Task: inverse folding
């Protein structure tokens, strides 16, 4: 099976043989690994002034870096990082180049959330006031955002290239969700359910990501019927063993290797966290190995390689 086929089998909670698939939201250490600047850190202020030849070179360069990254670390895929200034046609052309040089060996995944996530510090007070004082207006906005996302999804479906939408609105702090379960069910759950159903009906796989303590709202998240939940954050007190026991027959699980251990812990702590995720995620299938967030700037590459060593040794179905 190709890495793409292995991940799709896991998303469908089918039993597989051999190595557990591996997925990360992002891999930011491209300079350390390959001597190449990550797409998000490149400046495209003159994108509109570039010739079409220059633009095409950029689109191909991003495609080639993607394929280089997933091959180097055994990934089934990453969220495709879209540089500033690109539109969907730029993404489509870059995807075409991925398929040209990689066939269908790895998944292609885009951001696709349209639900209310944690507001930033500048917007938080206004968001809270609007929830309290303008509830119908907030619901109308949520509905419009979902409708727009599904319209875009339908256009992307015509490409015949995308496999997965990752829904990356974060809902939780490490201690609790930002919204109470009751408010979450009022302002997020119905719209997340519509969005997920719409993408699934188009034939896309759906991964719902949120960091933090999801346990007070996990029933609501599972009820929206994503193919997978990511990242099962141990820093938020999420125990993959508990989630697997309660929901492993309903949804694929992705992640749980503690990013805090990867960045500041000992080698033994990294090994222990990776081992725990594999031990409790693998039984019965429906599990994809990964961190509790992503491979972010500042994390040591050798720590990620240590995590992968554990995966290769212990992430194999007998």
Result:
């Amino acid at each position: 099976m190709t890495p793409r086929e292995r991940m799709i089998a896991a998303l469908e909670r089918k039993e597989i043989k051999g190595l557990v698939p591996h997925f990360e939201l992002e891999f930011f250490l491209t300079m350390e690994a390959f001597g190449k600047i990550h797409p998000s850190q490149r400046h495209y202020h003159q994108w509109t002034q570039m010739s079409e030849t220059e633009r095409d070179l950029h689109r191909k360069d991003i495609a080639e870096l993607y394929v280089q990254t997933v091959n180097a670390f055994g990934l089934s895929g990453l969220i495709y990082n879209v540089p500033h200034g690109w539109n969907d046609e730029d993404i489509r052309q870059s995807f075409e180049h991925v398929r040209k040089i990689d066939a269908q060996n790895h998944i292609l995944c885009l951001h696709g959330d349209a639900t209310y996530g944690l507001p930033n510090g500048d917007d938080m007070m206004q968001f809270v006031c609007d929830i309290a004082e303008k509830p119908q207006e907030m619901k109308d906005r949520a509905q419009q955002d979902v409708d727009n996302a599904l319209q875009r999804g339908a256009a992307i479906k015509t490409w015949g290239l995308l496999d997965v939408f990752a829904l990356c609105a974060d809902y939780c702090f490490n201690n609790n969700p930002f919204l109470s379960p009751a408010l979450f069910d009022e302002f997020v759950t119905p719209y997340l359910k519509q969005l997920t159903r719409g993408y699934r009906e188009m034939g896309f796989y759906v991964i719902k990501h949120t960091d933090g303590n999801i346990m007070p709202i996990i029933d609501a998240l599972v009820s929206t019927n994503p193919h997978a939940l990511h990242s099962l954050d141990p820093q938020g007190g999420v125990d993959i063993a508990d989630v697997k026991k309660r929901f492993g027959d309903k949804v694929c699980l992705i992640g749980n290797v503690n990013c805090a251990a990867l960045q500041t812990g000992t080698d033994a702590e990294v090994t222990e966290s990776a081992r725990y995720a594999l031990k409790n995620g693998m039984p019965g299938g429906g599990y994809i190995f990964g961190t509790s967030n992503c491979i972010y700037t500042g994390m040591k590459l050798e720590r990620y390689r240590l995590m992968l060593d554990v995966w290769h040794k212990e992430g194999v179905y007998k």
In short: The mean pLDDT is 96. Residues 3-317 form a domain with the TIM Barrel fold (CATH 3.20.20.210). The chain has one domain: 3-317. Residues 44 and 84 are 6 Å apart (CA to CA).
